[in-house]
Structure formats: structure tokens, C-alpha cells
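Let's practice the habit of predicting before peeking. Look at the sequence and jot down your guess about where helices and strands might fall. Then scroll down.
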Amino acid sequence: MRHVLNLTIATLVLVAFAFAARADALAAEPDAASIVKRMKQALEPARPSVRVMTVKVNSREGVAAQWTVGQARAHLDDTDSMLTVVLDPVGAKGIAFLAKEKPGAVAVGYSYLPAVRRAQEITPAADYEPFSGTDFTYGDWGFARLGGPWKLDGSETHNGVKAYKLEVVLANNPLFSKDVIWVATDTGLPVERDYYDLQGKLYKSEHFEKITTIDNIPTIMKIVMEDVQMGGSSEIDVSSVKYGEEAPVGLFDPKRLPDAANDPLWKMGAQ
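Done guessing? Here is the structure:
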């Protein structure tokens, strides 16, 4: 009887320690809002930058299209600005998207299509529209949308990276019902982001790869967006990043979008 009692007490002690350890682990984890805020800061460093990228659109048969794209980021007055413009090939050269964001305000976007020779302000609903036939949307080329409220589902090793898992239900969204994201515990950068359609099925899966530290800033060098339901994918491969490089102020003027692809900045950024 005493032996059984001792075993019972020992079991209770082990259970108590297990619950205490779990409680300590939960207490050590930041809340969901803090994790998402840190992710946005990691994705959008304060320093100005210029980068050159290769964008590929992949069909089931192989590479369907490939572009060279330039991107400039800056903080002007109280506004963050991000310009993305296609530099090559000639048939797509000049396609551009300019995003602007002020603290506490909804980001504003402007698109330019050479075929119609005009820049247009786009509505927030257009954030979910494909960017020139790729699997990336206009919103993917702009500033990170935090949304919320996010729910923290703990931490785990995902794609070989220790990460926090977060989830948000997207009310009144025209395309998606749920968004699940894994955020690296060390860098604060996203590891994977999954989008679910209105029926609750996985629709798109975005993977962030090849994290490289440049000027003490962890930087994502490759992003792959997979169309899980229809097949195919789109990729962004960053070939060069220059932090501290300041683009001409005029590049961030929506009225200057028709000339953005011809700015000498892109030749210097590729060196």
C-alpha cells in the first residue's frame, strides 16, 4: 500500500513539474501581436535600400516568363515608400507598382501599365489581385498587412527553423478565409505563409528562403509562392541588395512612374 502511495505521489509531482514547465514556456513566449509587429519590422528595415531581383512564373511545363525587377525603398518625411519596376525584357519593361504607407494609416498603392500609359491609384481590394499574371498579388509587393486579431498556436520547428505559429481568421475577405504563418524565433522573418480559400482548403503557400545577413540585416533572398490548387508557382530571387543606397526622391512620385524603369539607379544597383 505504501509502495502504491509513493508511486502516486511521485506521479503527481511529475505531472506538476510538467505543467509548471509548460506554463513557464508559455510565459516566455511573446504575444501574437508582438510577434507580428516584429515580423513587419524585420521585413521592412528602416534603412533605405535598392535591390535587383529575378521574377519567374512557372507553369506545369516549366518557366513561362522571367523578368528582371528593380526595387527601391525609402522613408521620406513621415511616409515609407516602396517602388517595384520591371526592367527587362522589353515587352514587360516599365510595369511598376508604388506603395506608400504612413504610420497608423492604410497603405496606398499606384500601378503603371505601359500598354495604357497611365498611372492609377488602386483600392485596398486590389491588394489581392495578381501582379501582372504572377502568383504574387499587389499586396505581396507592398508593405506587410498585419490585420488581426492573430492567435498564437505556440512554437515548433517548421521547415528546419524554430518558429512561432500564428493564425488569423479573415472576415469579409473576398478570397481567403484563414491565414497561417510561421515566424522565425531568432530573426523575426516569416518562414512560411499559407492562405486558405473560402471553403477552408489550402489555396496558396508562400515560402521564404535563403536568409542572408547583409550589413547586419537578415535578408530574405528567395520567395516562392505556390498555387496549391491549380499548380504552378512564382519565384522572386534577389541578386543584389544595397542598404543605405538612397534613390532619387522623384522616383517615389506617382506621376513619375512612366519613366521609372529608365532611371540610372538600376544600373548602379546591379553592380
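How did you do? DSSP finds three helices and 13 strands in the chain.
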